[in-house]
Amino acid sequence: MECLLGLLKVKVVRGLNLAICDPLSHSSDPYVVIHLGQQKVKSSIKYKTINPEWNEELTLSITNWTLPIKIDVFDHDTFTKDDTMGDAEFSILEFVEVAKKDVAGLPDGTVMKTLHPDSDNCLAAESCIKLKEGKITQDLFLKLRNTDTGELVLHLEWVSIPGMGH
């Protein structure tokens, strides 16, 4: 069995300017699917919007921090196959490295690391990994690929497993 390093809470905050998949209503019925290795978690469907507000927390068990987290956004269709609305991917390597550090005594709000958008990631804006209320957190603005438009806003939070180090 793989060793559990910790849990990653992925809060799917919202989508911005997602693709219009339902031309009649000029909107979409988006939902998000997050993959990590064999794990798959899914948000609820938000109807008739291209700027959905989910604010839903999905939890992944982290056993291999070298695997990227893959995200797909779909448009829910009742009678046909759901349309893809783009995808994104990000690495949690730096996030988990920071999460494993001893942060005792550091002031709340300490920025542990800043990540910048580049060709290797889907970041739409600079993203800081920081200490907030004793937890390692990160806000991500991801630009969706394989589509003309759309961004996703995510909030990550690390949950340590007691007895598993930090």
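Above is the first protein from milestone M3; the second protein from the same milestone is given next.
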Amino acid sequence: MLWPCRWTHLPYIPTSGAMFLSMLTQEEIPCNSLKFLEELNGKVPIVHIEDVSEAHMFFMNNVGSLNGRFLCASSFVSTAEIGNYYQHNYPEFKVNQEYLNDPKREIKWGSKKLVEKGFVFKYGMKEILDDCVIWARKKDIL
């Protein structure tokens, strides 16, 4: 997930942002992509670009003690959690009721290994989704 402040120079909305905003914009293709990602993983992994950068530096500073693959996502959320967050915090937008039904899936992968090694995420779902809305308002998308 890219941090919206980093998007200001782009002439288009990044796919990740379009997917999260699709709950509010009612755009079918990015919303279906979000639902597919949830179906594939159990939940939607999200991460702030600054946390990704920090994770890269964390690995460079601990190169001798870390090996293997690590997933980097601060939150694993359902599309229903995203929709409910938007509905509760941005009531001026209408979230499609079908997005609010939570099938209660478990995640298949996680960032537990990264956290166990000592990495701390700074941004969670709230900050990431709020940044998407702030950016979209500035760009007159919402």
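Note on the second protein: The helical segments are 4-7, 15-25, 28-41, 49-61, 79-89, 112-116, 125-138.
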